[in-house]
Amino acid sequence: MSAHESTYVPKTAVEKWLDTRLPIVRFGADYMSLPTPKNLNYWWTFGGILALCLVTQIATGIVLAMHYVPNTEMAFASVERIMRDVNGGDLIRYTHANGASMFFIAVYLHMLRGLYYGSYKAPREMIWIVGCLIFFLMIATAFLGYVLPWGQMSYWGAEVITNLIGAIPVVGEPVLIWLRGGPAIDNATLNRFFSLHYLLPFVIAGCVVLHLWALHHAGQNNPVGILIPKDREKKDTVPFHPYFTVKDGFAIILFLMLFALFVFFMPNALGHADNYIPANPLQTPAHIVPEWYMLPFYAILRAVPDKFGGVVAMFAAIGVLFVLPWLDTSKVRSMRYRPVMRWFFVVFVIVGMGLGWCGAQLPDAHVIPGFATFNLFDGDLNSYLWLTRFLTAYYFLFFVVIMPLVGLKEKPLPIPATISEPVLAGGDEHKG
Asked: With CB atoms counted within 10 Å of each terminal CB, which end of the chain scores lower, N or C?
């Protein structure tokens, strides 16, 4: 299913005048009437949830920026003043802080859904690539925002991450000086981070428009993973509105209930207690750790003993997603019909959660209960580190080895001829 012809007809003189100059009403009407596969399940509702998250982050961020002071002497105090003296400031700040976590929960589920159902395959490669770019910009924006409260974890997180950039040969040091605004993290750094943190959400919004444009042109994927021919469009699709606007609305209500649970009852559950201590360059925290949604990549960074190698591995963990459409050699999109690859995918999800858990552990933590300490090439190493290395190896093997080989060797299950076939009795014979 590709871009469909416009069916919008301007009715009033104002609509006709606007349609000939800026057809924004036509764009909205065409999107609402977009032929959408009728078998989409609730895994397809996270697009609408992510749009809500982005709007929430931008709106609350603008209000917070009105009261925040990007100065190392006043930043921490300004955040506390927002919490205590600004009308509704505590609600706005907690909504923004927890909104970042909700944003990443939704985007991880959205990406896993795309991975499971093969939404990155032709002709939807650009939808996936732009989505990966949005994910990368989200990580950058979240890191910049994590520094702004200027607590202990904010300062030392910035110290660790910016130092990693200095490990890049030739260009690392100049980029590090430019990013910090000097040889050390100070006022210039905080001003740069505040400016970029304010700017990037609007860049993300622009990329979302590109994402939707590509989706509008290539059409939606579906759980069965088959293309819908033109002669089947009326039978296998329904208009996006009202069928999926209602479905998305219900999912958004459930998501907002989870969001409200954290904002009103557990506002600090997903944060770190050390960030309520003012930044002190002379006192290093016992454990410097990023927010939970960055822990898998932080674990990959620590898994490599070489500093530059760790930086390469961390960025490669995101970069490999951009080339995913060319790594999967299977002709079948949906893993519903790929029994072998489905199990590798389940292991991949467990590995991702395991990397997050490992990233939260102390670097010199005790061994995992029941596991002996390893004594290999570089001395006594705890079993957390070796588990992290094993999980990191699987993460990369999944994309560059398992996915290409399984795609070539696996025999998929019979695929339905139409998306209606799995739910209607007496359909056409399956074709392999």
From this structure: C
